UniProtKB/TrEMBL annotation:
One of its GO terms (molecular function) is metal ion binding. Residues 25-45 are annotated as: Disordered. The gene is ltrA1. Residues 25-41 have a biased composition (Basic and acidic residues). It comes from Acetivibrio saccincola. This is RNA-directed DNA polymerase. Belongs to the bacterial reverse transcriptase family. Pfam families: GIIM, RVT_1. Keywords: Antiviral defense, Magnesium, Metal-binding, Nucleotidyltransferase, RNA-directed DNA polymerase, Transferase. CDD domains: RT_G2_intron.
Length: 430
């Protein structure tokens, strides 16, 4: 029945379909003397019990086509091969058999990732590794098969890069702990986490559930593909490059080892990617817990804690996911952290600047996008007074920029009259 349904689907393929039903996976199995029944079994694999034929599931027509559509929707720049998104579909169709066969035989070779640096709030930069579009499709196909398997392994208080979870859920959990009396936090900073992940340990953790050595080998190839930085090749024997579809999942799999241990110890914690907070009722309890946790992180997971940025303090003295916290009448409430307000004003200042080359309409559209997105993200916070202050600041800035743009006295006077300003007052202002 599975094969019949798949055949019917293939007859209705649209122009964005990259892999047909008669793909290299089936062809390779027939060439090796394997029966069609193996393919039917492959369609019925239970995600609770990964088998030794996981690669066939990854390379199935449905999964690969879904991966391509996902990469296409996410857009983004190309990698070191300089292929752009509008070239990807034709490339995949032309090289389909070659790509699938090389993946099955284990001869697929990912390109090095392209180093891109983006600015951080502290003035430093975050280093990303952007895979080629073709490699991104393969990574996305792997992610779609692995994600449901590992979702069942993750703990409830892990929120980053997981389906149907997000920053607001993590923040509400923080609020819940605080309202239970856990007002002190161990705010742990993992130093350059993505750049320092121990690949051998990560592969050992992956091998506990992934029983298909070909999939493990493929993941290892992506980790070891290297980095191209300004024309120079850099080896990548350590770390997980940020920027590929599979990177967040690998990070969660690695840090799930810590999550499981914290649950075993009965600690209350919230983790969003590598941002971890552990909640306690006193500073002394926090100091005891930190000694235990740091020993596990640095000794077992071979990661490094940035002691200078790690703190044990009251919840109202930290910034988490852009928010601040305060207590009123014994209850925890949210506020917008001052650094988040500064960041917003920097964006608004850049958008309203005279030298950015944007039209008036373009600026209005961009300003609306920025403000609406910002308000949507900080909707949990008490920010009526903040929004009033930002509104007044932005109005003053727009008036100042508009005034300078009019330049000539006559232009100022005429525009003020159009806005309904009295003649005498307009002459005085112009």
């Amino acid at each position: 029945m599975k094969i019949t349904e798949n055949t019917l689907i293939c007859r209705k393929q649209n122009k964005d379909t990259i892999i047909s039903c008669g793909n290299s996976v089936e062809h390779e199995r027939r060439r090796n003397g394997q029966s069609d029944s193996r393919m039917i079994e492959n369609d019925n694999i239970n995600t609770n019990k990964p088998t030794e034929r996981m690669l066939e599931r990854i390379l199935s027509s449905g999964n690969m086509n879904e991966a391509y559509q996902k990469v296409k929707r996410n857009k983004g720049a190309g990698g070191v091969d300089q292929m752009e998104m509008d070239e990807l579909l034709e490339h995949l169709k032309t090289h389909r058999e070659e790509i699938l066969t090389s993946l099955l035989k284990g001869s697929y070779k990912p390109y090095p990732v392209k180093r891109v640096e983006i600015p951080k709030e502290n003035g430093k930069t975050r280093k990303l590794g952007i895979p080629t579009l073709r490699d991104r499709v393969v990574q996305q196909a792997i992610l779609q098969v692995l994600s449901p398997i590992y979702e069942k392994q993750f703990v409830e208080t892990s929120y980053g890069f997981r389906p149907n979870r997000g920053c607001h859920d993590a923040l509400k959990k923080c609020q819940e702990y605080a309202n239970q009396g856990y007002w002190y936090v161990i705010d742990i900073d993992l130093e350059k986490f993505f750049d320092t992940v121990n690949q051998s340990m990560l592969m050992e953790i992956l091998s506990r559930l992934i029983k298909d050595n070909r999939v493990l080998s493929l993941i290892q190839k992506f980790l070891n593909a290297g980095i191209m930085d300004r024309g120079m090749f850099i080896r990548s024997d350590v770390g997980v490059p940020q920027g590929g579809p599979i990177s967040p999942l690998l990070a969660n799999i690695m840090l799930n080892e810590l999550d499981q241990k914290l649950e075993e110890w009965g600690y209350r914690f919230v983790r969003y990617a590598d941002d971890l907070m552990i909640f306690t009722k006193s500073k002394r309890a926090g100091q005891r817990q930190f000694q235990r946790v740091s020993k596990f992180i640095e000794g077992k997971l071979k990661l490094k804690i940035n002691k200078e940025k790690t703190s044990i303090t009251r919840l109202n003295q930290i910034k988490y996911l852009g928010y601040g916290f305060y207590r009123i009448k014994g209850k925890c409430r949210f506020r917008v952290h001052p650094k988040s307000i500064t960041k917003l004003k920097d964006k608004l200042r850049e958008t309203t600047g005279r030298s950015n080359g944007m039209s008036i309409e373009g600026r209005k559209t961009k300003l609306n996008q920025i403000i609406r997105g910002w308000v949507r993200y900080f909707k949990l916070a008490d920010m009526k007074a903040i929004m009033q202050s930002i509104d007044e600041w932005l109005r003053r800035r727009i008036r100042m920029i508009t005034w300078k743009r009019w330049k000539k006295v006559r232009t100022k006077f005429e525009n003020l009259r159009k806005l309904g300003v009295a003649k005498e007052k307009g002459m005085g202002m112009g």
